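Hello Y.,

Per our agreement to keep a running log of every chain we model this quarter, I'm adding this entry. I've kept the format consistent with earlier entries: sequence first, then predicted structure.
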Amino acid sequence: MKSLTLDISKAMLKPYELEYMAEQVKTAGRMLHSKEGAGSDFLGWVDLPVKGSRRD
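Predicted structure for the entry above:
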């Protein structure tokens, strides 16, 4: 499986802004991967790299 690395060092965010958003980002990630919350029936794309069939 491939991973994505994001460098936000030049995003002009202040440290307190990152701290404020950190818990919200973790919660959003948990909700996406557990498929909970509003709109959860539209999250089939989350498993595509793992469950999708490959046609060559």
